[in-house]
Design a protein that fits this description.
single chain; mainly alpha; rod-shaped
Length: 70
Amino acid sequence: MFWIFLISKPFFIKICSSSYIFIKLKRLVFIRSQKFILSFSYVFIVKLKIRKRLRFNSEFLRTHTNPSFF
């Protein structure tokens, strides 16, 4: 997405109003500054989800393979 924006920038400037460009550029700068934090938090969230899922699966297996459960 970032590279597409870079390629289409001249065309983008031609067709858009200056305020919109300013907002877009500001957002781009913000995204670039936040990228590391976002990627780190994303990885953390994914790890948590995987851990939760694994825990759930182990619980599920333990309860459903128990002979007294049937």
